[in-house]
Prior knowledge:
Blueprint: E1 2-8, E2 13-20, E3 25-32, H1 35-44, E4 48-55, H2 58-69, E5 74-77, H3 79-86, H4 94-107, E6 112-113, E7 125-127, E8 133-139, E9 141-142, E10 145-146, E11 155-162, E12 167-170, E13 177-184, E14 186-189, E15 195-196, E16 199-204, E17 209-213, E18 217-224, E19 232-234, E20 237-239, H5 242-253
Parallel strand pairs: 1-4, 4-5
Antiparallel strand pairs: 1-2, 2-3, 5-6, 7-8, 8-11, 9-10, 11-18, 12-17, 13-16, 13-18, 14-15, 14-17, 19-20
Amino acid sequence: MEVYIGVDVSLELSSVCVVDRAGQVIRETKVASEPDALVDFCCSLSQQIVLIGMEAGPLSQWLFAGLTEAGQKPVLMETRQVKSALQAMPVKTDRRDAHGIAQLLRTGWFRPVHCKSISAQEIPSVGLADDAGRLRVIAGGYSGRTGPARTFTPIEVWDLRLNAEKGISLAPPEGQNVTVVVPDGEVSINGSAPLAGPATARLGNEGDIRLEAATSAKLLILSGEPIDEPVAAYGPFVMNTQDEIHQAISEFQSGKFGTL
Length: 260
């Protein structure tokens, strides 16, 4: 039996839906938002996987690279088209979105986004002092090493492995908001109570961070420049104010955006 897998990507857990060629749901679940977890889930299926689809985005690119490296068949889908299609659902949940993405894959009603697959050999890996673990630089830079992923705005994406009872101090670029994703393990951040994965901590732009691992832990460190301006969104339109949204819709309806 051939199946299609839709993945609604979130920071901690991603919703996954598997459908067959007739559109019947074969399986629904949640998995940690990391390549190894998605690869393990795909390998657990007895059916033949035709495609694995997810909306394009920074975290999706990391998952795409891991799935490709493992010999799976992922595809990144154009975000605006996916969001437009999913808006037709009467109730929006992560589970329903994963189901909708799987159905879009099955019917072929999506636009693929090109993503240069990044092999494991291309990602620089830095050994940490005191045998604390290793840090892979996917995007941005760390300890003089630069990640291969190219981004439209300055962001850091670090794949961190900490050994049990070890720690590390990290200094994200000044002014960037930081999110720490813990798919697995138990860590404390800046002396806080231990955070057991899967979990996410949003730190803002507080400067240096100290991570202490109670157990062996996998972490994803994400940082980027904050958008210091108001954001208004409706369907595929993202502007600064509702008035600009209304203007954009009016111009779209009048044909000023062009025709296909």
